Amino acid sequence: MALEEILGMLGFAVVGIEDNADAAVEAAERLRPDIVMMDIRLLGSRDGIEAAAAIRARTGIRCIFTSAFGDPETRHHAAECDPFGFVRKPYFPAELQRALGHAVEVLRGR
């Protein structure tokens, strides 16, 4: 909920919130957001990296990863999804704004 509140303060609309990979992929296919904020740890057997890869493959939508886990192995594995960025928890509005600003610039450039 904190992330949703911060995103709203930054002027972004949250169109859906899911807690597991299957639901996240289905929501992305149905809602077609411009950007997906993806936590690496999700409920269930699949993680956020797997969900982000499936979303990218099926829709072309890229993500910004969020996680308290920023170890090099996790970041390397996440980088395979070509994310817009990686924001560590706890969330700081300036970090989110920087990552989202980069994503918006890339999207406008396409």
Task: Walk me through the structure.
The chain has 110 residues and is mainly alpha-helical. It has one domain: Rossmann fold. The protein has a three-stranded parallel beta sheet with strand order 1-2-3, with helices on both faces.
Short description:
This protein is mainly α.
Keywords:
110 residues, mainly alpha, Rossmann fold, three-stranded parallel sheet, 5 helices, 51% helix
**Residues in helix, %:** 40-55%
Give the helix/strand class.
mainly alpha
N- to C-terminal distance: 31 Å
CA-based gyration radius: 13 Å
Strand content bin: 5-15%
Topology, element by element:
Elements: H1 2-9, H2 21-31, E1 36-39, H3 48-59, E2 63-67, H4 72-79, E3 85-88, H5 93-109
Parallel strand pairs: 1-2, 2-3
Helix pairs in contact: 2-3
